[in-house]
């Protein structure tokens, strides 16, 4: 099973239409259709986090099928989204250094 299949599965379990999910995530309905069909094989980090939040699933589960399908706490996803938006490499490096110092990142 690939991420496209897990997306379809999670959306169906939540009872959300493709159109409604597309609006929630901020993409077009055709993009959502292409994601589910596998026409689009890759997804950027920001859209991945928006999808996982909207569906209440873990981004790791959605992409790799690993870990539980249940979502991490919303704050964790918000932090990951904020880090993914950083364009300054020095800022990202500083955050990575801090996470390593806390022992939560190798």
TrEMBL record:
Kindly list the GO molecular function terms attached to this UniProt entry.
DNA binding
| Pfam families recorded | HTH_3
Keyword flag Cell wall biogenesis/degradation: no
Q: What is this protein called in UniProt?
A: HTH cro/C1-type domain-containing protein
Which branch of life, at top level? Bacteria
Q: Does DNA-binding show up as a keyword for this record?
A: yes
Residues forming the HTH cro/C1-type domain are 7-62
Organism annotation: Herbaspirillum aquaticum
């Amino acid at each position: 099973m690939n991420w496209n299949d897990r997306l379809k599965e999670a959306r169906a379990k939540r009872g959300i239409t493709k159109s409604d999910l597309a609006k929630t995530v901020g993409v077009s309905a055709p993009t959502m259709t292409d994601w589910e069909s596998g026409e689009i094989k890759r997804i950027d980090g920001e859209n991945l986090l928006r999808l996982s939040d909207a569906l209440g699933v873990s981004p790791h589960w959605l992409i790799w099928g690993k870990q539980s399908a249940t979502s991490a706490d919303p704050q964790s996803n918000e932090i990951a989204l904020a880090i993914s938006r950083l364009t300054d490499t020095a800022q990202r490096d500083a955050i990575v250094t801090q996470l390593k110092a806390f022992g939560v990142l190798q």
